[in-house]
Backbone:
C-alpha cells in the first residue's frame, strides 16, 4: 500500500512575526523539517535520515540560543516560559531521533515530525515568538536576533503562501 500524497511543510505568511531574523530562521527550520520529512517518506538510507535529523536539531538549537541570548540581554519578562517551551521542543526532537535510531520506523518518525512542526512549532510562533517579536520591536530599533547561516546541504526553495489568497504564487 503506497503512502497517500501530502502537502509539503510550508511556511505561511501567517507565521511571520515582523522580525526579519526570527522569520528567516523559522523559514529555515521549515526547510530542514521538509528535507527530513521527504527523506522519511522516501527510500532514504537510515544514515541520510539521521543526518537530516541532526541538521534540524543543530539549526533549531542555534535558533533557540539566538532568541534566548536576546531575551536575556533585554530582560524579556516571559523569558522563563519561552525557554521552557524551547526545552520541550528540543526534548521532542530528541525523542524522534532516539525512536528512529532504535526502530528505523520512518512512518512513525514522519507523523511525529509533522505534529511537531505543523502543530507545536507553528503554535509556538503564533503565541510566544510573536509576543517576543513585539517586545523586541518595542524595546528599541537596534535589538537584533543574531543571524544564523543555514548549515548542511542545500535545500530546495521554500514555498511560501498566503493562506488568505489560494492563488498566491510561491517564490
Residues:
Amino acid at each position: 500500500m503506497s503512502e497517500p500524497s501530502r502537502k509539503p511543510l510550508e511556511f505561511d505568511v501567517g507565521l511571520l512575526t515582523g522580525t526579519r531574523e526570527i522569520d528567516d530562521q523559522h523559514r529555515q527550520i521549515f526547510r530542514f523539517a521538509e528535507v527530513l520529512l521527504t527523506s522519511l517518506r522516501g527510500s532514504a538510507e537510515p544514515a541520510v535520515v539521521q543526518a537530516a535529523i541532526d541538521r534540524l536539531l543543530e539549526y533549531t538549537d542555534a535558533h533557540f540560543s539566538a532568541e534566548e541570548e536576546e531575551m536575556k540581554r533585554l530582560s524579556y519578562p516571559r523569558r522563563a516560559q519561552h525557554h521552557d517551551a524551547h526545552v520541550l521542543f528540543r526534548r521532542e526532537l530528541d525523542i524522534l531521533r532516539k525512536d528512529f535510531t532504535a526502530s528505523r520506523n520512518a512512518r512513525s518518525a514522519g507523523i511525529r515530525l509533522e505534529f511537531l512542526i505543523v502543530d507545536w512549532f507553528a503554535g509556538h510562533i503564533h503565541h510566544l515568538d510573536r509576543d517576543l517579536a513585539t517586545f523586541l520591536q518595542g524595546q528599541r530599533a537596534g535589538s537584533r536576533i543574531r543571524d544564523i547561516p543555514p548549515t548542511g546541504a542545500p535545500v530546495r526553495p521554500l514555498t511560501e503562501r498566503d493562506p488568505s489568497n489560494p492563488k498566491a504564487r510561491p517564490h
Q: What stands out?
A: Helices lie at 20-41, 46-73, 79-103, 106-139. The first helix runs from residue 20 to 41. The mean pLDDT is 81. The CA atoms of residues 9 and 37 lie 8 Å apart.
